Every structure is written in C-alpha cells, then in structure tokens.
Amino acid sequence: MKKFLIGTVVLVLVAGIGYFFVYPYDYIVRFEAPSFPGTVNQSVKIWHQTAGTLDSEVEKGSILDFEQEVQAGDSIHQYSWHLEPLTDSTTQVRVGIRDVEHSLANRWDVLTGGSTVGKISRRMLTDYLDGLNEHVDQFKVNIEGIGELPSTFYAYVELESDQHGKAGGMMDHYQFMSNIMLSNKVQLNGPPMVIVDNWDRQTDSLKFKFAFPIVRSDNLPEHPLIQYKRIFPDRALKATYNGNYITSDRAWYALLTYAEEQGFEVEETPVEIFYNNPTLGGDATRWKAEIFLPIKEEEQGATE
C-alpha cells in the first residue's frame, strides 16, 4: 500500500509538472471547417484584419500549421492553428491557445472549470467560424483535372501586391488597358488574364502580369507601362471558380491540394482567365474564372 501511495503521488507530481510547465497550451478548441485548408488559412488572415476590436497578427508558417497572436482585453493570447484535410470540402481544425502572461493561472482555472481564456477563445473562434460559413457560401471551386493552358499573344502590365490586393490591381488597370487598346484599334482576342510570375506563400505576396489577349500586329501601341508576350499551350491542372475575384486564390489552394492527392508536381505560378468585368458589378457568385496550375514536366512550353 505504501509503495502504491508513493507511486500515485509521483504520477500526480509528474502529471502536474507536465500540465503546468511543459504542455504548450492552456486550452484547445477543435472544430470542423466547411472548406479545404487553403480557404481556412486565408480566411484566418482576413478575419484578424476585420473582426472589429480583435487586434491580432498572423505569423507566417505553412498552410497547415501557423501561429496567431491576439489581443484579448488586457491579455495577449497565442493561437497555434493546425489544419488536417478530411475531404475535398472539410478540414479538421485544432487551435491551441496560450495566455502569454497568465498561463499558470489559466491552467488552474481550466482544472476548476472557470477558464477565462477558454470562454474568450470559444467566443472568438465561434465568430470566426460564422464568418467562414458565410464566406464559403459566396464562392465555388470545381476541379476539372488535367487541362491545357491556352496559347495566346497578350499585352500586359507588371504588378505586385499581396494576394488580397490582386483584384484591386486588376481593377485599377482595367480601364487604362481598355482605353489604350481601343484608342489604338488593337483587336482583343479573349478575356483578361492574370499570369502569376512569383507567388510567395510565406508572405502571401505576388508578382504578376495583368494581361489582355490581343491579335498580334505590326502597329501595336508603345507605352512605358505596357509590354507584349506570348504564352504557349502547356499541360496544367484546371479548376473553374465562381465568386468574387478578390478570393479567386481559393482555387489555387484547391488545385495544390488536388495535385498533392493525385501525385502531380506543379509550378506554383497560377494563370487565371476572367469571364466577367467586376467594374460592372452584379451578382459575384455568377462570375466565372478558369484557373490553371502548370504541371512540371521535363520539357516545359517555350516563351518568347
């Protein structure tokens, strides 16, 4: 009996030390999100910018694992997000929460059923999930599998922005490009495009071409901001996106997930073709874009 009591005390001490001083989180929230990991990842970054009094910063990590720092009243909470895809349209989310300055007190409160960090984090994450549910109702991504990147000659301007600012850059230059092409009687040869040259997923930043497909001629307008190039046909994974073009990058993440599941190696340089003019407004859920993610092959299509 004495040995049993000693052993029990030792186990309790070890468990207590582990819980209070070793375990990384004060509290954990788990829920199922109604979309794929890329949407969850990006929507967290938008949420922390738009959630009223919520003051937070998202540390760059991978799509599936990243850190967030949240100002909650007088406390700073660290959120550690872990995402695990379940199906094509659902993700298991685990958020480990730690109060930076009051961790020990919060862990004791959790044991006694009165955790402030638990109440605050549940409320905040419920608000986030409500927003996510609204967001996923506003767009649709349909993976079509292997397609062919269309060939075209195009006029373009080079732009840089974060992912969320891509659509703004397009709209800022849409009328400019249209006026140049129209005033110089350039024949258009298809809807506008975005051709991504560099996508830094660590910083969510882009370098891209906003392009108008045109018929090549010997009398193309010269302008310091406008350049010309041709894109050649190439194998690519293709998706159709319906929704506001601000969040068309949701299709990029869906294609990355599909590529990983199907064993494709892809270039992280999406090409988008837009079939609606956002400046005309209308129901964004009816807007259409085709999204291509080039497949890595030994011989890539040439460019000039």
Automatic annotation (TrEMBL):
Coiled-coil regions listed: none
Top-level taxon of origin: Bacteria
InterPro entries: GyrI-like, Reg_factor_effector_dom_sf
Domain GyrI-like small molecule binding: 170-296
Protein name per UniProt: Effector-binding domain-containing protein
Organism: Robiginitalea myxolifaciens
